[in-house]
Design goal:
alpha+beta
């Protein structure tokens, strides 16, 4: 997060934007903490939405940030966690 803020502050005038994306529980094969349906259900209980994110949920945020439509959000961290962690 500190690196993202530094990049944003030091390079914004050159048209460079920087964002940090901080996903929470995401239902992928690379997440060994889930293991099975019971593991996913346990993780889902820890979120405000009552479900874990799908990879597309994170991809949607990345696509939005890459679109250039969030230029003035440079330097921010976007949490994609269904409110399991709220800053």
């Amino acid at each position: 997060m500190a690196m993202t803020r530094t990049i944003a502050r030091q390079n914004g005038r050159q048209g460079i934007t920087a964002f940090a994306v901080a996903p929470g529980y995401v239902d992928t094969a690379f997440n060994p903490s889930f293991g099975d349906a019971a593991g996913i259900a346990a993780a889902a209980r820890d979120t405000g939405l009552g479900q874990v994110a799908e990879p597309q949920d994170v991809a949607n945020i990345l696509a939005f940030l890459a679109s250039g439509l969030a230029r003035h959000a440079t330097g921010t961290t976007i949490d994609v966690n269904g409110a399991s962690y709220v800053r």
